[in-house]
Amino acid sequence: MAKLAFTAPVTRKIFSFANAKTDALLWDMRFSGKRELIKSVQKELGILADGLDGPVTWKTIYDQVKGESKKPSSSSIAEDMVNLAKSEVGVSEIDGTNCGPRVDEYKAATWLDPEKGWPWCAAFICWLVREAIQNKDVDFKRPQTAGAWDFENWARKQEGKGVALYKPVGEILNRQDNDRPYIRKGDIVVFRFSHIGLAIGEPMSNGHVATVEGNTNGAGSREGGSVLEKNRRVSSIRSVIRIS
């Protein structure tokens, strides 16, 4: 059986004690010498070594592992958002309830109760931003709104802090800026029909742009229940939000 593997120095020390037990004991926390093991771990953590695996011990272990697992990211926030969005394609809510294990995780990135059923397209974007800015220094406050159009209010409040709102977009959607299209890969796109998504490419010659959206379906509904890739008409976009 494989042993627990941790590469960071402090965590490696902590779990080296446990590795000696895992082969025969399946790490089920019911082995002889458990109290002594816990005391050894607690000493390494610098907390009271009472031999009891209570909430303080486990939280300290969790914080240690979480802290050591963080790695500086060299990619941009927009790039990370696109990669994250693509990796979530196919996630669906359960039976039209606006709820589900993964969907509720998206909803937890907002101010609202994630266990209640409510439209979650904006929650998906909140989750993308939250995940993409981990290990990055940002000046803006991350969005926590469940409203698609309310993203514009969030963007206005964060302008000058690495967030830019482009609205109205009507006559300038096809504008070129430094030889690049106005809508760029990684931009948040707010639609005219109270929906929101993430551009995963630049506008195509047919007047469409590829997106990943939460709470949509094959027909493009804003109440569709799944994370999907879509091709949307550029003319259906009311504003663009760019995070840099």
Average pLDDT taken over every residue: 83
Number of strands: 8
Order of helix and strand elements from N to C terminus: HHHHHHHEEEEEEEE
Distance between the termini: 45 Å
- By CATH, the topology of the largest domain is endopeptidase fold (from Nostoc punctiforme)
Strand content: 15-25%
In order across it, which strands form the biggest sheet?
A: 1-8-4-5-6-7
Low-pLDDT stretches are: 1-13, 17-27
CATH architecture of the largest domain: Alpha-Beta Complex
What's this entry about, in short?
With 244 residues, this protein is of the alpha+beta class. 34% of the residues lie in helices and 16% in strands.
Offer a few descriptive terms.
single chain; 244 residues; alpha+beta; endopeptidase fold (from Nostoc punctiforme); 2 domains; 6-stranded antiparallel sheet; 7 helices; 16% strand; elongated; disordered N terminus
Outline the secondary-structure elements:
Layout lengths: L8 H17 L8 H12 L9 H15 L7 H12 L12 H7 L13 H12 L17 H9 L4 E4 L9 E2 L2 E2 L6 E4 L4 E4 L8 E9 L9 E8 L3 E7 L1
Antiparallel strand pairs: 1-8, 2-3, 4-5, 4-8, 5-6, 6-7
Notes on the structure:
With 244 residues, the chain is an alpha+beta fold. The chain has two domains: 9-69, no CATH class; 77-243, endopeptidase fold (from Nostoc punctiforme), CATH 3.90.1720. Helix content is 34%, strand content 16%. It has seven helices and eight strands, in the order αααααααββββββββ. The protein has helices spanning 9-25, 34-45, 55-69, 77-88, 101-107, 121-132, 150-158, and strands at residues 163-166, 176-177, 180-181, 188-191, 196-199, 208-216, 226-233, 237-243. A six-stranded antiparallel beta sheet has the order 1-8-4-5-6-7. The chain has a two-stranded antiparallel ribbon with strand order 2-3. β4 and β5 form a beta hairpin. α1 packs antiparallel against α2 (34-45) and α5 (101-107) crosses α6 (121-132). Residues 1-13 and 17-27 have low confidence and may be disordered.
